[in-house]
Amino acid sequence: MAKSYIFLADGFEEVEAMATLDIMRRAQMEVETVSITGNPVVTGAHGVAVQADICISEISVEAADEAEWIVLPGGMPGATNLASCGRLGNMITSQFEHDRKIAAICASPAVVLGPLGVLRGQDAACYPSFKDDLEKCGAVYVPQPVVSSGNIITGSGPGATFLFGLAIVAASLGDDVAASVASGMLL
What span, in angstroms and rounded, lies between the C-alpha atoms of 144 and 160? Predict the structure, then answer.
């Protein structure tokens, strides 16, 4: 199984990043957190400082081209900061063009993926206050906690994080593994 990456920017939603990471690792997926800045310590929207596994500059072109998942937590201004990272934008576009997996939750579907054209014509969830932004980018807003559309999984917000993480696991390893992880977490 290829490595997956969860990208962190200052102002990220801590629950969405950390719970998704935890669920993926419980499923034995190889996943690293990635700071988009030159500093491995990234501070979330609620003041929680997290030490990322690596910085984006440490991901080689080859590794980026082989990523199983690119995962984008939301939060503000975290999603805006992710959207302003040119290298990440290029990685997302390449991931999409090569029909590889992308997951985004909360503000990130509308703020990060939408402007890149990744969600054009796709069903997608996002934080409800970003519905209009999502639709302006050509996506079809679906008011559900988690929406899977092809190789793209989107989620509505912090409360949907467990379902979001489990959807990623199911898409990679199957429903049985996702159910086992959920059971072990008493979900």
Answer: 9
Take residue 154 and report the two structure tokens written for it.
């989107």
Structure tokens at 112: 């990060």
φ and ψ at residue 146, rounded to 5 degrees: -140, 140
Q: pLDDT by residue (tens digit) across 24-38?
A: 999 999 999 999 998
Q: Which fold has domain 4-181?
A: Rossmann fold (3.40.50)
Beta bridge partners of 8: 35
* Domain boundaries along the sequence of the chain: 4-181
Query: Three-state SS across the chain?
Result: CCCEEEEECCCCCHHHHHHHHHHHHHCCCCEEEEECCCCCEEECCCCCEEECCEEHHHCCHHHHHCCCEEEECCCCCHHHHHHCCHHHHHHHHHHHHCCCEEEEECCHHHHHHHHHCCCCCCEECCCHHHHHHHHHCCCEECCCCEEEECCEEEECCHHHHHHHHHHHHHHHHCHHHHHHHHHHCCC
71: tokens are 């995962």
Distance of CA 37 to the CA centre of its chain: 17
What average pLDDT does this structure show over 115-127?
A: 97
Band the pLDDT of 14: cuts 50, 70, 90: very high
